[in-house]
Amino acid sequence: MPRPRSRRGCGIPGSGRRQAAVNIHMYSIGDRRAVTQTVDWVRLYTGLPVISNEFGTYPQSDEAQIVDTGEGIVSSGLDGLVLYTLGGSGGEPLVNLDGSLTAAGQAWADFIGGLV
User: Deepest in the core among 5, 35, 44, 85, taking most CB within 10 A?
Assistant: First the structure.
C-alpha cells in the first residue's frame, strides 16, 4: 500500500474552516497493534491530533485483552479518549443498570487506576 501524503491542516470541504482534530470510533478485542497502527495512520494521513469519543471493547474481551487494548491506547499517544460505557454497536457495557461496574468496567477502572 502506498504511503499517504500528509494533509496537514486539512479542512472541511467547502467550509473554509480547518479541523482541529480527527475523531475515530473504535472497538477492540485486545489488539494493541491495531490501536497504534490506526492512530499512527490517521495522524500521518491528516497531520492532525487524533481523538476518540467512542472507544469500546467487545463482549468476548477478557481482562488481559482490555489491558492490552489500554496499553495500545497509551502507547499510541491518542490525544483524547472517551470510553463508550453503554455497550451499543456490539460493544461490552462497562456499567450495569444499577450503576455498578461490569467485569469489563472493573478491568478498565483497574487499568486506568494503575496509570496514576
Answer: 35
Q: How many CB atoms lie within 10 A of CB 84?
A: 20
- 1 within domain boundaries: no
Q: Return the closest-CA partner of residue 26 out of 77, 74, 90, 71.
A: 90
Number of domains in the chain: 1
Cβ pair 34, 68 in contact under 8 A: no
- Say if residue 11's pLDDT is above 90: no
CA dist., res. 92 & res. 89, Å (int):
9
**pTM as predicted:** 0.73
Residue 30 maps to a domain: yes
Query: How many CB atoms are closer than 10 A to CB 67?
Result: 17
